[in-house]
Amino acid sequence: MSLIKNLEKDIINIINTAGYNVVDPMFQLSNRPDLGQYQINCAMSLAKQYGKSPRDIASDIEKELEKDSRFTNINIAGPGFINITLTNDYLAKMLNMVNDDIRVNIDKKSNNKVILDYGGANVAKALHVGHLRSANIGEALKRLARLLGYEVLGDAHLGDYGRPLGFVVLEIKKRYPDLPYFDSSYTGDYSEIELPITNVDLEQIYPYASLKAKEDEAYLEEGRDVTYKIQNHVRGYYDLWKKIVEISKADIKQIYDDLNVHFELWQGESDAMEYMPELKKIFEEANILTESEGAQIVEVKTPEDTSPMPPLLFIKSNGTISYETTDLATILERKIKYNPDEIWYCIDTRQELHFAQVFRAARLANLISEDVNLEVVGFGTMNGKDGKPFKTRDGGVMSLKNLINLVYEETLKRINPATVPEEERQSVAKTVAIAALKYADFLPYRGTDYIFEVEKFADLEGKTGPYLLYSVIRMKSLLSKAKEINYKNMHILNSDIEKDIALTILNLPLILTKSIEAKSLNDIAEYLYKLTSQYNKFYNENKILVEDNEKLRESWLVLTKVVYSIDTLLLDILGIRVPEKM
Ligand code: ARG
Asked: Ligand 1 pocket: which residues have CB below 6 Å?
């Protein structure tokens, strides 16, 4: 248990000794630092329970607290708020414990096994802004959950199934009809064929073919037929599809790598298809499929619904399956292969209806044990200044690559030529750009939309990724300059700002717990800024390395080291890389 949680437990015991039974002492960092470091706010609710005045209760508790040598300046304010302050000795002692082992500043949450479905890139299609959010938030959530004890498998769940890819194969057939993939007499090995197509071509073909299918009935028909051939593993067509997946996957992997996003599983929608026969059986036996205009559907509406809840399209009238059904088959696949306690889906909130249908159908069919938590971790959109989803200047979809480039151009200007040699400039600017983008993406609660403001994100000052990186690099450099000095212990907390930093450090476990409960990283992003800016204030006020008082200098270095380790830990949780210099 963390130090702060232990302290809370001790306070509960003290309140019990004072004669009051309390579950939550409402112990928290004070919002009136002039009165004390912490507040205990439970006297008001105990008053109702015990039929006494809150001030009397507070004063009974105060008497008990006074017996404890860890506390000082105990006082009661207003109707019965108890303010307490930790003695400097005790505070320093706790910081030494954190310095020795950061684990005393983290509370485990659960050891559940989770499949985290995030990323969700689509094969042959350029990643867009929405894919950034899923990858960014999903990766950080995975890292956070692991830190807090969960066992997590991240699955990229590639969109590799469905009609758009049928159109891509059709378009390739139109452009290169002589490729052996379309020659039914070809008996050779397809893996030896050089495909005259790169990922850049695929990203052009995908939207071209999808649009054409909308405008041209015959093309649409042909595309359907090609899709059918791929899905039924018809030689040639299926092999070309596989080749496309391979080309595209290499590119997708590269982007995710750049973003410091890594998956344990690279399953695609298509991988769940072998579970279709079993899925059908389960749905048939559950007796929940009904016929509608040649299609098979599942009614998922309940009388309590106040907003529209259309039926789930299980099998379309042409025999193919819907996006919903691929997700149902994937649940079955995950259950059989991994037997998770929970499945979390990091997705755009605009897909919430889709998942509501899927989860309801899964429950109706008893597809997975009721104890398995299926949960949507939804995120809002990144908008342009007009408040609409961020677009290119001519109104097109903004690709993720172009978005990263926009930020890169901005960060490149800000890399200090005095510290970063010319040949490293570009790679440093790229790391900083991605940090800027990622950090800005974490700052609002995940479900909230936010506006893309490149100058603001890339700013070296203020609540930004670059500011954090710059600060952390400076701490690291200070610590490396202090290498010869033997600093081991925190002896003194000299000034108010040092004590504030210490309190912020000890508050970390509560921030982590709150974040995992909300499955949002915004509190961690805020916390990082708070801790770092408090530290920078302290740094600017003191000349640490040349301080004559050795005990003070040692304490300052320990403080620096603890802040540095928490900053690097949290940046790593957020999946933000720190360059050597910038
Ligand atoms: N490929 C989808 C998209 O780009 C996202 C996939 C989300 N995950 C899922 N299990 N459906 O919209």
From this structure: 117, 120, 122, 157, 159, 327, 345, 347
Identify whether the C-beta of residue 65 lies closer than 8 Å to the C-beta of residue 543: no
Is this prediction's pTM over 0.90? yes
What element of type H or E holds 178? none
For the chain, the domain total comes to: 2
Over the stretch 512-556, which tens digit does the pLDDT of each residue have?
A: 999 999 999 999 999 999 999 999 999 999 999 999 999 999 999
Domain that holds residue 170: 163-258
Would you say residue 32 lies in a domain?
Answer: yes
| Tally of CA atoms within 13 A in the half-sphere of 550 that contains its CB | 4
CATH, residue 65: 3.30.1360.70
| Identity at 309, one-letter amino acid code | M
Q: Is residue 517 part of a domain?
A: no
Whole-number mean pLDDT of the chain? 96
Q: Pick the last residue of a domain from 36, 55, 86.
A: 86
Pocket of ligand 1, candidates 256, 347, 379: which has the most ligand atoms within 8 Å of its Cβ, to mutate?
347
Residue nearest to atom 3 of ligand 1 (CA): 120
Summarize pLDDT for 201-219 with one digit per residue, the tens. Answer: 999 999 999 999 999 999 9
Assess if residue 408 is contained within a domain: no
Nearest CA to ligand 1 atom 8: 120
Which phi and psi angles does 269 have, rounded to 5°?
Answer: -55, -35
| Distance, CA of 207 to CA of 32 (rounded, Å) | 57
Task: Give me the pLDDT at residue 130, please.
Answer: 87
In this predicted structure, what is the pLDDT of residue 363? 98
The domain boundary residue, chosen from 86, 105, 129: 86
